[in-house]
Design goal:
There is one protein chain. By secondary structure, this protein is mainly α. The chain is 80% helix and 0% strand. It has helices at 2-29, 38-62, 68-88, 93-114, 117-140, 145-155, 163-186, 198-210. It starts with a helix and ends with a helix. The relative contact order is 0.13. The model has no long low-confidence stretch (mean pLDDT 90).
Amino acid sequence: MDAVWLGVVIAAVVTGAATPVLLARGLAQLARRDAMSRGLGLAGALGGIAAGAAAVAATQRMGIWELAPVLLLWGCALVAAACCDAVTQRVPTALVRQAGVLTCALLTVALAVHGDWPGLALSGVAALASGLTLLLCWRFAGAGFGDVRLATLGGLGLGHATQRGLLLAFAAFTLITVTQAVVTVMRGGDRRSTIPYGPALAVGFLLAAAA
């Protein structure tokens, strides 16, 4: 148990420091350095800490410690992209693409070393399913194509997700999205107003991986 708590602390420190860096990189890719603020950096750091805790929880549940670095990278990228989306309503394509390629490569190595071919296959299926789901949202529900890319990245971390985790993720995504829509309407928006899906996606994917 002490080793687990030590892992949580180390992961929290690493992700809490790395996520604001990725966030700043994402904003630079969007040519929106001006959107970076102390408050946003703090939000990114706190989100990164949550991502680190989720990565450790997922790794402990699966018993595949080779996945820890992969999930830490994956979680940091999700949170950084979600923070970019929250303040600019745009997802940095380069950041998500780079994180996706690196996550995919490291995931393949980690699961191959462990001999977990079914987990690797399920990760690919989850990424495809997540991407296709958001592709439908892009076509019919006003999501951006950046959300499709972010969902595909998010799906890579769900190769060992449980039914409970997926249900929690869906509930969290729905709650956050509905809350954003209600707040938008209360502020004078209408059904044509756009909302950032990135934060809800990031929370959902982290919950799905950890629970």
